[in-house]
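B., you asked whether I could sanity-check this one before it goes into the benchmark set. Here's the sequence:
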Amino acid sequence: MLREDDLLLFLIVLLTWKMHKRRSVRSFSSSMTGPYLSLCVSAKSLPEGGNIGEVVLFDPAKTELLVLTEKAIPDEIVLAKGLGASKGWAFFCDPQDRCVHITDFMNPWACKSNPKLFTLPPLTSLPSCQTNAVCNVAMSACPDDDKDSVVAIKSLGDQLSFCRPRRDLRWTKITTPLDYFPTSNLMHSKRDGRFYLPGPGGHHLLSYDLNFDKQGYQPEFHELQFRNFPKSFESELELSELFPCSARTNTSYANSRLASKEISYETQQFMVFKEEETTEGRFMCYTDDIGDTCIFISKGEAFCVQVSCFPGLEPNSIYFLGFGLGVYDLTSKTASSFLDPSVTLNQLMVSYWFI
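And here's what the prediction gave me:
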């Protein structure tokens, strides 16, 4: 994590500009309840040692910036590179020794003076693989709550790395079979007790349970069957061409459609498929009604929340960060941006939604 990041600061300026007609920046209070977006961290060294700084977040429910002041920032991550986020924890990688650090210091409810930090062994690559570029990360549970918690990191290409932060402290490195999952986003299902990798277009799933480190272990390969396609999509081939990006959240998929405008991109549309059990088997059924639920998608692990628990969020919606930053209404099938429409921003890959 760099001390200055021009892209993040530029994003903060844009968000502030768009919200200039209302009180756009506030300090943290216990009234904040819902998911938030990490934007920027500034740190300065203290004479007595250690670092203190500010964390800037975006609250989508109130479309306001939130500033966490006087936050202790661990030495290990001041110059580290962000890898992703899962279950309210941020992942960083030390550029020198490649150690992975998991911390809750960006969580508004974490201890300001003594944030939690777990350090994992250096992340190294298998032959013919690499770990410098990471697609995303996921966890089975928070490491401070569950001694059996598993951390998983999906690298660009074929490598998948697992570690138990409070047990063996070693990486189990696996090469994903076939050539279906080079850029897939990794997700964990608490219901199934499995990590999932969706293939391009969402037609295939690769899954790993928590026995991945057993000798001779083989993942499960699932071929998904889709039903109830919208009439505007007559073939699965057309669907896979229009929706190359997939994200899974326990029992549903959100597939995004991207439109090219010269050298920039914007998110135009999402499609959601809900997993349903029938007497004929398990099917992914298209729906434009997820009720009192909204989905959060970024380069961090995707998740869902109940809107009734978080006033201000839009029901039946998808909050997205990637090709733009905004919210997609599944009922009206329209996307609204949190950024000023006159400004074009390419893919934002350095921020994450936190539950």
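One thing to flag: The first strand starts at residue 25 and ends at 27. Otherwise nothing jumped out at me.
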